[in-house]
Design a protein that fits this description.
Layout: H1 16-29, H2 42-46, H3 54-68, H4 76-97, H5 99-115, H6 126-149, E1 152-160, H7 162-166, E2 177-190, E3 195-206, E4 209-223, E5 226-236, E6 240-251, E7 256-265, E8 268-280, E9 283-292, E10 295-305, E11 309-317, E12 325-333, E13 338-347, E14 352-362, E15 367-376, E16 380-389, E17 392-401, H8 406-446, H9 448-477, E18 490-492, E19 508-510, H10 512-517
Parallel strand pairs: 1-17
Antiparallel strand pairs: 1-2, 2-3, 3-4, 4-5, 5-6, 6-7, 7-8, 8-9, 9-10, 10-11, 11-12, 12-13, 13-14, 14-15, 15-16, 16-17, 18-19
Helix pairs in contact: 3-4
Length: about 525
């Protein structure tokens, strides 16, 4: 009857999949793009820090004017370049000397100066705007359709492979057996922003006996703080039975939310109530009361979620008809794509203690693969594989042994780690490196025109500095006891040999003249 349960409102920080999807989108849009004009850093062109005083800005501006004033150069090419640079220095000087314009520039950059304090990203070229618009429009359309239909499904297949490790490989049949198969699908039919119908169904086969269920539900969002839904279901297996479910939820305050449900099945009525409350900034607590044919039960749940860790604890308080239960689950985020999980459950009624550990890997923005090892006193040793993609979930547990053998536990742990290591070295690693190379190459192609322009301007600037640098060196040499003379200066990746990254782009450049000019 789990197929008749609908998802309640989610609380707390965005789930890990949502954060990772945002990061995946950021990966696709990262990297500089070619602007239609070079936007200079006003502090950089004046060679001052962002904390520079007005006197320091004036001194730097006068120093640059002595070098780049157009009247100080005779050749036409140098005079044209000096005029352009002199205009940049003057523009930077006028902005930084105006307290109000400087405050706007410090907070919003060039965009703030152009739009008058209107927040926004850097102006892009028409081609960039068109590509970004098409990408965002396509993504919004996909999300809109997915939100309206909300198509979800699952595939669950249990495999018994104990004969491979426990049986006699020479006499017994060691073929793994499929214990059960379950399929589940559901989708929404929206009629308005507040009303929708949910249709779902499930089929399964276990030990040669099949069964299935179907349900039809109606959900209404009657306000921004509450909803109600009515579900009818019919199941067929060893016996055929039907039932109805009514659920209603409402936000009580900014930190609390309550849900009430009434279920009728097989001439029995059950009532459940759930109260969720935000206990701390990253912790959500919930308490559930159930009243029905099995007695009264109380379940306590807490969820703590931060940027790197997520911890969940579930405890069922023992009561008449309800056995005690305790479970804890910890998820640690190793990177933007990988994470590790550890779980622990105790069920005294079944005399079961179960421990689960493993890891997950995000293959793309909508896909995640997980591999886990489960060891229990009653359940034995098993592998659990999980794959999620865009609302579709695949779960395949493989039972390796019905007894707890330390050797088999070590075997079950090493094999997944070995598989992951091989996949990382043979598949994921090369794919990531190829992806990074493509991003760098695309970024280099987008910025080729800008880099060439800046390179020419830098060479022209150094050429205009040579006269001033020659005079400064002569002054330093005449200082009694010796002055400060820059013999050689380099900027870049000094440890990387020339030509190891790109033959056309050396890893470092000679900045001797530029540094001597600062003396």
């Amino acid at each position: 009857n789990n197929t008749c349960t609908m998802a309640d409102e989610e609380w707390g920080p965005p789930p890990q999949e949502a954060r990772e999807e945002e990061e995946e989108d950021q990966d696709r849009t990262d990297g500089p793009s070619s602007p239609s004009r070079v936007e200079v850093d006003y502090y950089g062109v004046l060679n001052v820090s962002r904390e520079a005083t007005e006197d320091e800005i004036k001194t730097a501006y006068k120093k640059l004017c002595l070098t780049y004033h157009p009247d100080r150069h005779r050749e036409e090419a140098d005079q044209e370049f000096a005029t352009r640079k002199f205009t940049e220095f003057t523009e930077a000087y006028e902005v930084l000397m105006d307290p109000q314009r400087r405050a706007v520039y410090d907070s919003f950059g060039h965009e703030g100066l152009r739009t008058g304090l209107e927040l926004g990203a850097r102006l892009k070229t028409p081609e960039e705007i068109k590509r970004e618009f098409e990408r965002l429009r396509e993504k919004r359309e996909q999300k809109r359709v997915a939100a309206h239909v909300n198509f979800q499904g699952g595939f669950d297949m249990g495999v018994d492979a104990t004969s491979l490790l426990e049986g006699d490989t020479l006499q017994d049949d060691t073929t793994p057996q499929i214990n059960y198969i379950k399929l589940f699908q559901s989708f929404h039919i929206p009629f308005s922003r507040a009303d929708r119908v949910v249709l779902s169904g499930a089929v399964g086969n276990s030990s040669g006996r099949g069964g299935g269920s179907t349900q039809l539900g109606y959900r209404r969002q009657y306000s921004s703080k509450g909803f109600c839904e009515f579900v009818s279901f019919l199941a067929h297996g060893n016996r055929t039975f039907g039932g109805m479910l009514f659920r209603s939820g409402r936000q009580l305050s900014l930190q609390s939310y309550a849900t009430l449900e009434v279920k009728y099945q097989a001439s029995q009525v059950g009532i459940g109530a759930v109260l969720n409350r935000q206990l701390w900034p990253h912790t959500i607590g919930s308490i559930r009361w159930d009243v029905g044919q099995l007695g009264v039960g109380t379940t306590l749940t807490t969820r703590t979620q931060t940027e790197l860790n997520e911890i969940g604890v579930d405890v069922t308080v023992p009561s008449p008809g309800r056995p005690p239960f305790a479970g804890c689950h910890w998820v640690h985020r190793l990177s933007r794509r990988s994470g590790m999980e550890l779980g622990f459950t105790v069920n005294p009624l079944m005399k079961e203690v179960e421990i689960e550990w493993g890891g997950t890997r995000r293959m793309s923005g909508n896909s995640r693969l997980g591999m886990f090892v489960v060891c229990g006193i009653q359940s034995g040793i098993m592998w659990r594989f999980r794959f999620d993609r865009s609302g579709q979930k695949v779960h395949v547990p493989i039972k390796l042994s019905s007894i707890l053998d330390p050797f088999l536990v070590l075997f079950a742990t090493i094999v997944p780690v070995t598989i992951i290591s091989l996949l990382r070295s043979l598949l994921w690693g090369p794919h990531e490196k190829l992806r990074e190379r493509r991003k760098k190459e695309e970024s280099r192609q987008r910025n080729a025109e800008l880099l060439n322009l800046m390179k020419k301007e830098a060479e022209a600037a150094v050429r205009l500095m040579e006269t001033t640098v020659t005079r400064k060196r002569a002054q330093e040499e005449s200082v009694r006891g010796g002055g400060l003379i820059i013999v050689h200066a380099r900027y870049g990746s000094l440890d990387e040999p020339v030509g190891s990254f790109d033959p056309d782009l050396p890893p470092f450049i000679d900045v001797t003249i530029a540094v001597q000019y600062q003396v």
